[in-house]
Specification:
By secondary structure, the protein is mainly α. The chain has one domain. The chain has 4 helices and no strands. Helix 1 runs antiparallel to helix 2 and helix 2 packs antiparallel against helix 3. The protein is globular and about 45 Å long. The model has no long low-confidence stretch (mean pLDDT about 90).
Length: about 90
């Protein structure tokens, strides 16, 4: 395994542990770190796709959409001009 692949693997593992830690926070404290994770995931998925092929990138994208389905629904509703309710 070369250095770039090893670094990508560690970054992905760090992202997973960070997402688990954020999920354990109370809802009102999840927003800022959740947004950072939401923005970092597509970058990681892109690099996974570059190093391991588009099939792995599609699998990563499916996992990402599954985990962040509620925030993504909220963002889409906001972009459509709707006013979705934020959980307390």
């Amino acid at each position: 395994m070369d250095g770039d692949t090893m670094m990508l693997m560690w970054m992905c593992i760090l992202w997973v542990f960070a997402s688990v830690a954020v999920a354990m926070l109370p809802m009102r404290r999840q927003y800022v770190p959740g947004i950072a994770l939401l923005l970092a995931a597509p970058v990681l998925i892109f690099f996974v796709g570059q190093q391991h092929g588009w099939v792995m990138a599609v699998l990563g994208l499916a996992a990402f959409v599954s985990m962040f389905r509620n925030p993504l629904k909220f963002i889409l509703a906001k972009l459509r001009g709707q006013n979705p309710q934020v959980p307390q």
